[in-house]
Please model this.
Amino acid sequence: MTEGSIAKDNKTTSVLKAAWLIAVVTIVSKLIGFVRDIIIANYYGASLVSDAYYYAYQIPSLSLILLGGVGGPFHSATVAIFSKLIPNLKDKPSDEVNRLYSTFMNATIIFFLVLSILIFVFPKQIMGLIISGGSSQMVTLAAKHLQIMTPLLVIGGIVGIYYGILIIYKQFMLPNLSPIIMSLAIIGVVIAVPNDQKGYALAWATTVGAILQLIIQYPNIRKLGYRLKPVFEFTNNPHFKEIGELLFPAILSSTVGQIHIYVDMFFTSSISEGAWTAIGYANRVFQFPVGILVTAFLVPLFPIFARLVADNDHEGIRNYFNKGVGVLFFGAIPIIIGILVVGLDAVSLVFERGVFDSTATFMVTEALWFLSVSIIPYVFRDSITRVYYSFNDSATPFAVAFSSIVLKVLLNWILISKMHFGIGGITLSTSLVTLFNACVLGLLITKKMKMDYKSLFKNLLKMIVSGIITFGVCLICAQQFDKFVHISKIPFEILKISSIAIICLGVYIPLNLLFKMEYAGELFNRIASKILRK
Model:
């Protein structure tokens, strides 16, 4: 075995270890987030107040989650540029790196501070424009929620840079644990505040949680040697120019994604009270397994993509891309099957208590069914976007996302206004737009390098055939379960979901092994070797 192949094997092992670590941390974070959502659903249900909060939260979440979150433009730009300027992670950052850090941080703070002031001054006008189909009471409630949460705009950009720095230094734990802080803050406040004072409790708790997220990141950043100084090299720092060239289109791209959400909000406000809350819960249920998969594999892979691009190692990129996306596909199909077969039972088990009734359960599940079909294009789109970012190209993902705005409006108009699909129409249009973005990005990347899609999609075809057979078996088993098992509601749902999950994996994995799908074989061999080693 050559030194190059040994190094590649070691790198693959380290990526897998990092992926497992991030997956475990993300699972814990998502579980606590789930508890948060259950508690919110228990006290607020799908109501006017919850709609107002979730409508308002979409604006500050643009900064905190889309722009500043793990995988967002600020994190991605930091990793793409800083990782090339830090040859040895054991050394303190050079003066050049620290000056770039200060310049980037100061520019971020100034930009978001100005934006937050404007939003704080004109909240009612902003919310009135976004939810024009809603009542005046909803607009007023949403405007007040928005004012309370304006600090999240500044915090989101700073936290995004912190995430990027920490991940470069292979400190994967803290960035993926910090969202727990916000969840715990919301849980504590919602439970502690009396029922007659819960109107704005969610907004205050979200703001406090975001501040705490920032506070827990700072000591590690300082320990690594990064210091914020009054450095404003906006025009004469070539590396800041590189960040700008990567970041600006990426921000626009994420903003375009948020425009898609605003389009959904506009159409949803005319459906029914609680509809936007239901779509929000459906997205969170969707993001629980999918977010774990995507975060676990793409966070450690992205710095490797950036270094492989710097080394002009296209073969390495193809290898890591196909393995990463292949594993994501492999894990995504059982998730789709689970949502389609026992999604209603799962939503009922998790949320249906307090003021969250069976009507709200069906609303969430309906949205979730149509959203589930987007998992395959979703993981491909997010993966191929990281390859673009590694080439310092965020303009192409922006252009593709921008071009899909018209498609989003058209699909919503057809599915909601003309075909009256209701909530399901909103999430179905989202799935179709995701598919469009994935296909276009997958085709355009060939302008930069040749990808090996043949082997990737050959394996995907085997997975889909295995998935269809597994879906049929699971559906029949679920129907028989409903027919013959008669026990109280919660034990019934737990037993049904657990049984279908076991049956799903018990059919899906052997079928993939039978069809010689390589990722299933590799996973089986790794597990077998670990067991034999013990």
The radius of gyration is 23 Å.
